[in-house]
Each structure stands twice: as structure tokens, then as C-alpha cells.
Design goal:
The protein has 154 residues and is mostly beta strands. 14% of the residues lie in helices and 38% in strands. It has a 5-stranded antiparallel sheet with strand order 2-3-1-4-5, covered by helices on one side. Strands 6-8-9-10 form a 4-stranded antiparallel sheet, with no helix packed on it.
Length: 154
């Protein structure tokens, strides 16, 4: 076997679907849980601690026949900002999306203030992202600031 063949990583190509790339290795399984991969019947390929020129090490998830909605993308951005979504059709990458936290989050995060109206009335939560680099958000209603590590996803 040639040296070039030894260095190749053989992973089944996707005909149609999404590859979530550049996931921080420590966040791979959190992302998988967050988007409900354990309940999907799609073909799914995981890779963790893969070499990356950009990050050193990275994780990747390939999901056949799955294309994400905006709220699912925002959920991923909460856990692993700056990942890249590769949209694949007919074995070709047709679109690359670099995802980051949006300016506002609606009905994705639960307010951790027990007195907040969103925890006592049937209504959607609404948060402003006040610092994208640290992942700090602020409730629109009670104005409580929540750091990334204290975020509770609905």
C-alpha cells in the first residue's frame, strides 16, 4: 500500500445531507444530543479529535438526508459557535455556512430566574446576545444576564 493511501481517511461520502464541521472536540457529543441525533433514523457518521489546520483538533458529524432549520442552527451555535455547515447534494458541497450566535434567541433558552414572567406564564422566551465571543445573553423581560456555562436550553 502506498504512503498516500495510508494517510487517507475513508468515510462514506454523503449523497445528500449535512456535514457539521469544525466542532470543538469537547462539544461533539453535546451537539449530537442537542440536535437529537440519538432519535434519528438517518445514517450518521461521527469523527472526533480529527486533525485540523485551523483548530489543531476538531469533531465532525455527517448526517444523510438532513437539512437544518434556523432554530436548529441557532441551538448548535449556542454550544459550538463558529462551526461550518456543509450542505451536500448529489455528492457535492453546494453551500458552506459559517454559523455564529444570532443577535437574538427566541424560545430556545430557558431563563434561569425563577421569578421571570416566562417561567410563570405560557409565553416564549426572548434573549439578546450581548457578547458573542463569551456567549453572554440577557433576558428581554427580567434583564437577567446569563453566561454561556449557565445557559439552559429548552
Amino acid at each position: 500500500m502506498s504512503d498516500k493511501k495510508k494517510k487517507e481517511l475513508l468515510v462514506a461520502a454523503l449523497e445528500n445531507g449535512t456535514a457539521i464541521d469544525h466542532i470543538p472536540p469537547g462539544q461533539l457529543f453535546k451537539v449530537a444530543q442537542l440536535i437529537g441525533l440519538y432519535t434519528m433514523n438517518n445514517r450518521i457518521t461521527f469523527g472526533n479529535n480529527l486533525k485540523s489546520k485551523k483548530m489543531g483538533r476538531k469533531g465532525m458529524i455527517k448526517i444523510a438526508d438532513k437539512f437544518f432549520e434556523e432554530d436548529e442552527i441557532n441551538r448548535i451555535a449556542l454550544i459550538a459557535p463558529n462551526v461550518v455547515l456543509n450542505i451536500i447534494r448529489d455528492y457535492e458541497v453546494v453551500e458552506k455556512k459559517c454559523i455564529s450566535l444570532p443577535d437574538e434567541l427566541t424560545d430556545i433558552v430557558r431563563c434561569n430566574n425563577p421569578k421571570c414572567i416566562t417561567n410563570n406564564e405560557p409565553m416564549k422566551t426572548h434573549f439578546y446576545v450581548i457578547d458573542k465571543s463569551s456567549g453572554t445573553i440577557k433576558c428581554r423581560y427580567c434583564e437577567r444576564k446569563i453566561n454561556k456555562e449557565d445557559i439552559i436550553i429548552k
